[in-house]
Design a protein that fits this description.
Among the domains are: about 80-130; about 140-250, 2-Layer Sandwich (Alpha-Beta Plaits), CATH 3.30.70.1880. It is built from six helices and eight strands; from the N terminus they run αααβαββββββααβ. α4 (about 155-170) packs antiparallel against α6 (about 225-235). Helices cover about 45% and strands about 20% of the residues. This is DUF881 domain-containing protein.
Length: about 270
Amino acid sequence: MPEHAPEQEPEQEPEPVAGPTAGPPDPASGRARLRHALLAPTQRQVVVALLLALLGFAVVTQVRDNQVDDSYAGLRQQDLIDVLSGLSGARQRAEAERTRLERLRDDLQSDTSRRQAALQQAETEADALAILGGLVPVTGSGVRIVISEETGRVRLGSLLDVVQELRTVGAEAIAVNGEVRVVAQTSFEEVEGGFLIDGEVLEPPYVIDVIGEPALLSEAISFIDGPARAIRRDGGEVTVEELSSLDIEAVREPVTPEFAEEVPGE
């Protein structure tokens, strides 16, 4: 009998292993992850956020620049020429206005300087006139002249010669016996026992204080055949002392003119 091969049983496919079944994402878990990322971001998330912010700022800036740069893009050539001409005219007007303002500034400064110089000159002249008019006390270098009567009486003419010579060499202030300030309007009169000077009776010795250049004042009295020699012929004696500092306190009251009037605008 023929031999038969043993029958093989058919192979069975392995049964699939059961695993976790995939399903739709849980919305609650997604919100929790988002909340956690916002409340406690990681370093990577912070860096990404900064980069996105910088990128957004750059985009906005570029858009604005493009808008500015394109403001004249749609203009025709003639329109651009007109705009350029308008800008050139505005620049010329601005330069002309600046030139005008600078010229006005220079004129104002010049006028101010002239006014200040005129004011200073007027103040200087007023001070000089006040000194010459005997209206204010003065101090300065000068001489003190003492005239005494030794063997005779000093004549009025000899005293006037002394005053005139002092004025000739530039005496700025003269006072007699510290009481009378001698000026151009001072009156002299010979009276019993002395001289009447501007209404004041003065007796010898006559002390004449003079402010000016000491050497010139002294020479004006002591030169040959000068006032000192005339006083000695009268029987008087003269001494002259040069002083580096001399005070004259005597002043005159200002006199109101009776006939002269100030010219308006002068």
